[in-house]
Write a structure and sequence with these properties.
- InterPro entries: Poly_export (IPR049712), Poly_export_N (IPR003715).
- Residues 1-22 form the signal peptide.
- It comes from Palleronia sediminis.
- It is a single chain.
- The protein is of the alpha+beta class and 369 residues long.
- The protein is 25% helix and 27% strand.
- The strands form five sheets. The chain has a six-stranded mixed sheet, sandwiched between helices.
- The longest helix is centred in the C-terminal third of the chain and has 22 residues, at 347-368.
C-alpha cells in the first residue's frame, strides 16, 4: 500500500511532468515549434499548401533541376537506309562490251572496292568523277552512279553495298547489357528499339533514366515514362549518343515516418502525397497528420519580391493531411530534388511518453513500499 504522503508526492511529480512534455525525447520537431521559430527568427518563409497558394508556389523556379532540353517529339521515319558522310560503299561495275574502259581485258566486271563517302557526301568513280550520294538510299545511289557511268559506257551496270559509319550509327555507352556502336539500318529506329538491340537495360538498375546527347542538346526521360507513354518513344538520329543510368535525384525523409533516409525518385515527378507514401507513411502513434512539412532552399539568384519568385531563400511548406483540401493540395504539390520532407511529432505522442514515465514512477513506488 502506498503511503498517502508518498502518493501525493507522485501526483505532484505527474503534474510537473505534463507541462514538460515538449522536452521529452522525440524523433522530430512539432509543427508548433516550427511556427514559433519562424515568428521569432523570421529568416525563412512559411506557407500553408492550399488550393489558393498552389498556383503561386508552382510559378516559382525549379530547385536543383537536372540539365535537360525537354524531350524530342516522336515521329515516323523511313524504313530504308540513308547514306551519310563517313559511310563506306562497295561498288562493283559490270560491263559486257568488248572494249570496255571500265573492266580489265577479258573480264566482265570490275570491283572498285570500298570507298568512304567524303564530308561533302560524294565518292569518286573512274571516268566520271565525284558523284554525290549522301542523303540517298543505297538504291538511289546505285542509280545515280549508273546514270553517270552510262554516259561513258551505255552497257555498264552497277552493284552497290552500304556499310554504315559513325555518323549513321547510334552510340549506346552505358546502362545496357551490350554497350557499343550500332549502325542504323533504317530511319525508323526508336529509343526503346535501340536499347533493345543493345540487350536491354542492365538488371538491377534503379529507376533507369534515358538521356540522349544530340549535338549540343541533352534530352532526359524516365524509362518507365517511355514504357507508359508510347507517344514519347522518339526516333534516334544518326550520331546520337544514348546513356542509361540510375536516377540520382532524391528527397530526404525525416521525422515520425516509416523510414528516415534518402528516398530516390521513382519517376520524372513526385507529388508530396506520393513522397509520404515512399517514406513509409506516417507513424500512427507519433506523427501529426496536420503537420507534414516540406523544407526547401532556393538559390539566392531565384529570390525576390517580384512575381514568380519566393521572398526568402529558405521556405517551409505545411500540408494538412486530415482534410480533403489538404489531400488534394498534397497531390498537386511537386517535390523538388533534395527537398526535406518532415513528418512532425504529435503532442499526443509526447503525452503518451509522459504517461509511460509516470506509470514507471508509480510502479517504482509500489516496489519501494
Amino acid at each position: 500500500m502506498i503511503h498517502p504522503r508518498f502518493g501525493l508526492a507522485v501526483c505532484a511529480l505527474a503534474i510537473s511532468i505534463l507541462p514538460a512534455c515538449a522536452g521529452l525525447p522525440r524523433g522530430a520537431a512539432m509543427r508548433s515549434e516550427i511556427n514559433l521559430n519562424q515568428s521569432e527568427a523570421g529568416d525563412y518563409a512559411y506557407y500553408e499548401v492550399t488550393r489558393a497558394t498552389l498556383p503561386r508556389i508552382a510559378s516559382w523556379p525549379s530547385v536543383n533541376p537536372e540539365r535537360s532540353d525537354g524531350w524530342p517529339k516522336a515521329s515516323a521515319g523511313s524504313i530504308g537506309q540513308v547514306i551519310q558522310p563517313g559511310d563506306t560503299v562497295a561498288v562493283r561495275i559490270f560491263d559486257s562490251s568488248e572494249n570496255s574502259l571500265l573492266t580489265p581485258a577479258g573480264a566482265r566486271d570490275s570491283n572498285l572496292g570500298e570507298m568512304m563517302v567524303s564530308p561533302s557526301g560524294s565518292v569518286f568513280i573512274p571516268y566520271v568523277g565525284n558523284v554525290k550520294i549522301s542523303g540517298m538510299s543505297p538504291q538511289k545511289a546505285r542509280e545515280a552512279i549508273q546514270y553517270q557511268l552510262g554516259l561513258v559506257a551505255p552497257s555498264a551496270q552497277v552493284q552497290l553495298a552500304l556499310t554504315e559509319g559513325l555518323q549513321n550509327s547510334v552510340n549506346i555507352v552505358s546502362g545496357v547489357s551490350a554497350p557499343g556502336v550500332y549502325p542504323l539500318k533504317s530511319r525508323n529506329v526508336t529509343v526503346l528499339g535501340a536499347i533493345g538491340v543493345a540487350g536491354g537495360v542492365a538488371s538491377g538498375t534503379r529507376n533507369p533514366r534515358v538521356m540522349i546527347q544530340r549535338g549540343s542538346a541533352l534530352y532526359a526521360k524516365s524509362l518507365n515514362t517511355l514504357y507508359d507513354t508510347p507517344s514519347l518513344n522518339a526516333l534516334v538520329h544518326p550520331g546520337d549518343t544514348l546513356i542509361v543510368e540510375e536516377d540520382d535525384r532524391y528527397f530526404l525523409a525525416l521525422g515520425a515516418a516509416g523510414q528516415e533516409e534518402l528516398v530516390y525518385f521513382q519517376k520524372d515527378t513526385i507529388s508530396a502525397l506520393e513522397a509520404v507514401t515512399l517514406m513509409g507513411g506516417l507513424m500512427d502513434s507519433r506523427a501529426d497528420p496536420e503537420g507534414v512539412l516540406i523544407l526547401r532552399e532556393y538559390p539566392a539568384d531565384m529570390v525576390g519580391m517580384g512575381a514568380g519568385r519566393p521572398e526568402k531563400q529558405r521556405v517551409v511548406f505545411s500540408i494538412d493531411l486530415t482534410s480533403a483540401e489538404g489531400l488534394f493540395s498534397a497531390q498537386n504539390m511537386q517535390i523538388m530534388p533534395e527537398d526535406v520532407v518532415l513528418a512532425t511529432e504529435s503532442a499526443v505522442g509526447s503525452l503518451q511518453v509522459a504517461l509511460a514515465l509516470l506509470g514507471a514512477t508509480v510502479g517504482l513506488a509500489n516496489q519501494v513500499n
